[in-house]
Write a structure and sequence with these properties.
heterodimer, A: mainly alpha, B: Beta Polymerase, domain 2, 7 strands
Chain lengths: 402, 167
């Protein structure tokens, strides 16, 4: 089996009794195009080698050829389940380079949408994870609620998934009039729906047997392998960037960071469900306390002017023309900005050489690092547990391959 | 250019101003010659580490409480020399603090010690840098392309690689 012509990456069997099994890239439970090369001894996994890159599109290279503001829509495409987190992280990084002050209202809208994005992403995770383990109903329920979030995004940004709603210096538009009321109504119903999912899963003997004690990852391994987000907290590390290194005004919100020391797939499930409840709380706080004021920074050379101003004021028209045709120069320097995305630490390393195009944009993606822990989770377990473990790290290949 | 070529005076000034910084304390105590330069910009500390000291520097800061490797990546300063700047982003959970190590690597010998022995997390990151920049990591357990196919020619994130690729 060591010379599969179509597969350059192979793992040779270390013994006669073992065999090599390809899982993916077309396997439904690998959530996209992840290829896992398993060495198995009967049903037991001896080695796991992830093979990635099937979705590599060279986004980091493309960013270098675009103006700073043109790279925002590219960032959506990385993690297509939490586009707003990518937008936010990139904008925060460039704003840090520019030393730009963002108005409070824009910050709160960003927090509100970040939490809606987290709910969106966790709903997809819960649905697909449960489906992998044989609970099909949950998938349909989760997508029912996710659809409502996507409709809110659609109204807000004109796009369901690739929203590109955040801008360097704020957000692109004032949300439509009924957006807040609809969001509030949705958030009010969501806790009941989460109860509904929990009714289907939390006491479910099959689900418990498939997840408890499966995919174990110790605290030390989690830290040394660069695991972040819910899998890190499920391994007993109390670390959440929203609370510990706040950005975009998160220090003004009250929320709990669920932590577990069980280290298994079950703990990751429980944590994410609790996180969804906390996200509802944060989003509600953002709605309740939303300050008045502008939604864009007062920086005419960086932020596009209002349509009305552009049509009536010569200066605004000039700024508009300049920004669109020449971009804006960003002072030289390098920054690393990290946020807590749905999957963990999402970081943007942006290097500027003083021109209008980023010299280098690097994305530090949470599941890229977390994928390295898959071997620790799966070795000497059954093949079926690999499915549970892959689901529990909430993998998105778009952000791994970029 | 944003190239890390600040003067040595700048280094001494930065180090003196942040003498109580845990990473600087540990490094000046255990590896006094490792820090080639220091920069504090936009709230972020960048320490330029001598190429041969990166492994020891990582061990030192890990022992000083910087327990988590967040990221390893590279910047190509072509046509300037030294051409490659490796950037290591290291986080401390207990201090809630980040530091950045920069290592400058010449084009003629683009290689540096792997830090997978200190943080196994560096495995994929170093493979990515090797894949996209062609910088080699000595002592890496599995240094092969990670994102691109193994028969791919060139290193696309190098600045002399055209954005649209070779036709």
């Amino acid at each position: 089996m060591g010379n599969l012509l179509t597969a350059p990456m192979t793992v040779d069997s270390s013994e006669d009794r073992t065999m090599i099994l390809n899982m993916g890239p077309q396997h439904p439970s690998t959530h996209g195009v992840l290829r896992l090369v398993l060495e198995i001894d009967g049903e037991v996994v001896v080695r796991v080698a992830p093979d990635i890159g099937f979705l590599h599109t060279g986004i980091e290279k493309t960013c270098e050829a675009k103006f700073y503001q043109q790279a925002v829509p590219l960032t959506d495409r990385i993690d297509y389940l939490s586009p707003m987190h990518n937008n936010l992280c990139y904008c925060l990084a460039v704003e840090k380079l520019l030393q730009l002050e963002i108005p409070e209202r824009a910050q709160w809208i960003r927090v509100l949408l970040s939490e809606l994005t987290r709910l969106n992403s966790h709903l997809v995770w819960l649905g697909t994870h449960a489906m992998d383990l044989g609970a099909l109903t949950v998938f349909l329920y989760c997508f029912r609620e996710r659809e409502q979030i996507l409709r809110l995004f659609d109204d807000l940004a004109g796009q369901r998934m690739m929203t590109s709603y955040f801008r360097i210096g704020g957000v692109s538009l004032e949300p439509p009039l009924d957006f807040y009321n609809r969001t509030r109504a949705f958030l009010k119903t969501l806790p009941e729906k989460i109860d509904e999912y929990e009714n289907l899963l939390t006491g479910n003997r099959i689900f418990i047997n498939r997840t408890k004690g499966v995919g174990l990852l110790s605290r030390e391994d989690a830290i040394s392998l660069g695991v972040t987000g819910p899998p890190l907290r499920a391994s007993g590390v109390d670390w959440d960037l929203r609370r510990d290194m706040p950005y975009s005004g998160y220090e003004k919100f009250q929320f709990k960071v669920p932590v577990s020391t069980d280290c298994d797939v079950w703990a990751r499930y429980v944590l994410r469900v609790q996180e969804m409840r906390e996200s509802v709380k944060i989003a509600t706080q953002a709605l309740d306390g939303l300050p008045q004021g502008p939604i864009k920074a007062d920086a005419p050379k960086i932020v596009l002017p209002d349509r009305e101003a552009m049509k009536t004021q010569m200066e605004a028209l000039i700024h508009h023309f300049k920004i669109v045709t020449e971009g804006f120069a960003v002072p030289a320097g390098e920054v690393y900005q990290a946020i807590e995305s749905s999957r963990g630490e999402m970081g943007y390393y942006v290097v500027s050489d003083g021109t209008a195009k980023p010299y280098r944009v690097h994305m530090r993606n949470p599941t890229f690092a977390t994928l390295q822990a898959i071997e620790k989770m799966c070795v000497s377990r059954l093949i079926a547990d690999v499915v549970a473990a892959v689901g529990s790290i909430d993998i998105v290949l778009g952000e791994i391959d970029r | 250019m944003g190239l890390v070529t600040d003067t040595a005076e700048n280094k001494d000034a930065v180090l003196a101003a942040r003498a109580d910084h845990r990473a600087i304390l540990a490094l000046t105590e255990h590896l006094p010659n490792a820090i080639l330069n220091a920069k504090f910009d936009r709230g972020e500390l960048t320490l330029t580490i001598a190429r041969e000291s990166i492994l020891a520097a990582c061990q030192t800061v890990q022992a000083a409480g910087y327990n988590f490797l967040a990221d390893v990546t590279c910047v190509d300063w072509y046509p300037n020399q030294p051409r490659f700047q490796l950037s290591y982003h290291i986080l401390s959970h207990s201090l809630k603090q980040r530091i950045r190590f920069a290592v400058l690597v010449e084009e003629s010998d683009p290689s540096v010690d792997s830090i997978t022995g200190v943080w196994p997390a560096a495995n994929f990151y170093e493979r990515e840098v090797f894949d996209l920049f062609g910088v080699r990591f000595g002592g890496h357990p599995n240094l092969r392309r990670i994102l691109l196919p193994e028969d791919f020619h060139g290193n696309p994130l190098r600045k002399d690689f055209p954005v649209e690729g070779y036709r």
